[in-house]
Design brief:
Order of helices and strands: HHHHHHHHHHH
Distance between the termini: 60 Å
Helix content: over 70%
Number of helices: 11
Number of strands: 0
């Protein structure tokens, strides 16, 4: 994978966001990681600033240090399709590609322009201390969206399961009202529902009979 490919930029952004979040949550600084793990300071800076990805050894060191799985911090594992660029990711990747192509002097000039615009619009910008913070901030925003989207999907799945349970409960209540001796009504009931629903109803009713 090329160093500045869209996939590489995407991976660096997500990894940086996860690493920075863990450091913040656990009160760790880069110097702590350097002293405790023996990873060079310049290497850690690359990770934190979203400029590089860890090798397998350093990834495992970081995962063990923060007591998480490697898949919790490395997008090559936790993103379902790491080589697919999602629609909302593309503008961020385009910006990072453009920004990293600038010289250090031009990055500083661009950064000052951003700060000036934020100040003019009375928008918060205390989290932006240096040019590279533009990249790490965008990475954090992408990671937050990924987290929220994942939670929404889980909620949607749970809601669908709940709706299905309610539907089967209604059908089972309908069945429970039928006189067991009324074979015609029972046959009508069975004919008006799918075999799958009948099985679910019977399973539900059998559970209710159990002590």
């Amino acid at each position: 994978m090329a160093k500045n490919s869209p996939q590489d930029i995407k991976n660096r952004l997500y990894f940086s966001a996860r690493l920075n979040r863990l450091m913040k949550e656990q009160g760790k600084r880069q110097i702590d990681l350097h002293n405790d793990l023996g990873i060079p300071k310049s290497t850690l800076t690359g990770y934190v600033k979203g400029r590089s990805m860890p090798n397998t050894e350093n990834l495992q060191k970081l995962a063990d240090y923060f007591k998480v799985e490697a898949s919790d911090i490395d997008p090559r594992y936790f993103v379902i399709e790491p080589d697919v660029i999602l629609k909302y990711e593309q503008p961020v990747i385009d910006f990072v590609t453009m920004f990293e192509s600038l010289s250090e002097r031009k990055q500083k000039k661009y950064f000052k322009g951003v700060i000036k615009d934020l100040e003019h619009d009375n928008l918060p910008h205390d989290f932006l201390k240096e040019p590279s913070d533009l990249v790490t901030h965008l990475g954090s925003q992408l990671d937050e969206k990924l987290r929220v989207d994942k939670e929404l999907k889980m909620l949607e799945k749970e809601n669908a399961m709940l709706e299905e349970e309610i539907r089967i409960l209604k059908i089972s209540n309908e069945y429970a009202l039928i006189d067991p001796k009324d074979t015609e009504a029972i046959n009508d009931f069975r004919n008006s529902h799918s075999e799958e629903d009948i099985i679910k109803v019977e399973e539900l009713l059998n559970k209710k009979k159990q002590p």
